[in-house]
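Now for one specimen:
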Amino acid sequence: MAENREFFNRRLHSLLGVFPIGLFLMQHLVVNHFATYSPEAFNNAAHFMENLPLRLFLEFVLIYIPLLFHAIYGVYIAFTAKNNLRRYGYFRNWMFMLQRATGIITLIFIVWHVWETRLAHAIYGTEVNFDMMATILESTFMFWFYIVGVVAAVFHFANGLWSFFVTWGITVTPRSQTFLTYATLGVFIIFTYMGIASLIAFAN
């Protein structure tokens, strides 16, 4: 029973990391990228998302609850995993270690980001807009904190996407897994660029 429960939890953890958490991450980065066009473009995109029907219900069901499970179980995996870097040192072992490390960094970043934006809006009524992010990123420390957080989050998603395809038996041959490695590297490069470009636009 314990083995079956762990098998189910790991599969659910993998699934939620892609659907819906990964999709939300990509959507969030796309909306933020409007900041590279103009403050007005970002505000319009952010306000569109804010005014979606049943927004609070969708956020809790599709984001907060899945994210809570993924985070809690991910911390358990991170602190119970056995890394074999010294013994093996293969590429995938490094990805295995970095996946867990970036998971912890991403969790810290998300908690802080939600506190500075969503909770600030809920508690103090602060509007979530371009000016809010510009004020946050005025601090050099916060700017680099966000850079590290965004890179960690995108890496965690991209590498987790590779693990998802392998875990669920979608890519089983060495050739397909090699192709997937390059595909997920492309995902990492594209969305990291979008995230960093957005932060620079806010900061400037």
In short: The radius of gyration is 18 Å. The CA atoms of residues 35 and 97 lie 33 Å apart. The chain is about 80% helix and 0% strand. The mean pLDDT is 93.
